[in-house]
Amino acid sequence: MQHKSLGNTQCPIARSLERVGEWWSILILRDALAGLRRFDAFQQSLDIAPNILARRLTSLVESGLLERRQYQERPPRYEYVPTALGRDFRPVLLALLAWGNRNFAPEGVSVQIVDAGTGAVADPVLVDRASGRPVALAPFRIAAGPAANERLRRRYERLEKSAAAPAAGETR
Amino acid sequence: MQHKSLGNTQCPIARSLERVGEWWSILILRDALAGLRRFDAFQQSLDIAPNILARRLTSLVESGLLERRQYQERPPRYEYVPTALGRDFRPVLLALLAWGNRNFAPEGVSVQIVDAGTGAVADPVLVDRASGRPVALAPFRIAAGPAANERLRRRYERLEKSAAAPAAGETR
DNA sequence: CAGTATCCTGTCCGATACTG
DNA sequence: CAGTATCGGACAGGATACTG
Questions:
Q1: Mean pLDDT, residues A1-23 taken together
Q2: Is the distance between the Cβ of B8 and the closest atom of strand C smaller than 7 Å?
Q3: What secondary structure does DSSP assign to A3-43, as a single string?
């Protein structure tokens, strides 16, 4: 993923994708956040070729999502543990999980989020921290921020106008 | 993305990635949910080659995230509008946006979520709908669900045990 | 305007073999 | 156990030309 417009984009989504755009990366992160640490563990869990695993692991370390840490002197052995940045990625993973569960689990849910204390199944919603309202629904919208350049600012102005208009047919 | 283990996986994250694993898809979806509809609009916004755009658009339609809709008879013209499934993807996109803003915006936020009514900037958190507690933090964990097969169930049992153990050093 | 048709390149990925 | 080294194949993505 070395797209010209991605390198210097202002879009935070594109910036995020620079780090986790490859799907193996996300699956590895999923496992790492679940507690897996060692090369071997990842390989078994993912059924991935070792060279590919090594490559993805390295790229995740370079992106700062994982830390490569020596846990044994001789022979030297390393494990991969999520950094703060990596742990901060959890909500994205859980949102992805929830979307999958809502839409692609016709035979029932096979992986879910639970409260380890009570065993209650959680139903994740993305809300605004202050008001508690769901952020994915109106009246919330995406807008240019303080650091936006002129081009971006104009773009969102334009979008706002056209959204004020018909907002034509959403499907189904 | 036609990985053997992905086709029949039980993991909802992997299932999601089957639909949106390619990064162009996510960027297109971002624009579609922002209100873009036409081929031309996507192309300008994304600076993408037309053949690639056509390919990704088709795959998003096939995955059921976008609907191709004729808006003019002659010459026949089509536009691409998000389906219910596509709109349901919004929280994932916003979680990705928030992660990017928190971590990769040293010079300030250039795109943000705002309340269109009040203009207040939103701070998205993923919480449990019932309890309102952040789902990304303890005591919440990922666990096998009712439809999990034996293999998956065992796997999460094992993880639960090792998590009960030291839960060794998280970085930073 | 909304694409299709070609051609080409990069690299992601899979398979396999090998090593300290 | 934790990788590295090689090789090959598929396809995403880029550039460009063309069409109704």
A1: 80
A2: no
A3: -HHHHT---HHHHHHHHH-SHHHHHHHHHHHHT--SHHHHH
B8 φ, ψ (degrees, to nearest 5): -120, 30
A148: nearest CA partner in chain B: B110
Which residue carries 């019932």 as its tokens?
Answer: B130
CA distance A35 to B169: 11
Burial class (CB in 10 A: 0-12, 13-18, 19+), A97: buried
Which one of A10, A67, A139 has the shortest CB-CB distance to B115?
A: A139
Yes or no, beta carbons of B141 and A85 under 8 Å apart: no
Can you tell me whether residue A79 is helix, strand or coil?
strand
Residue B72 token pair: 């003019």
Global pTM exceeds 0.90: yes
pLDDT digits (tens, 9 = 90+) for A64-119: 999 999 988 778 889 999 999 999 999 999 999 999 999 999 999 999 999 999 99
Per DSSP, helices labelled H in B8-164 are 12-20, 23-34, 39-46, 50-62, 84-87, 90-103, 150-164
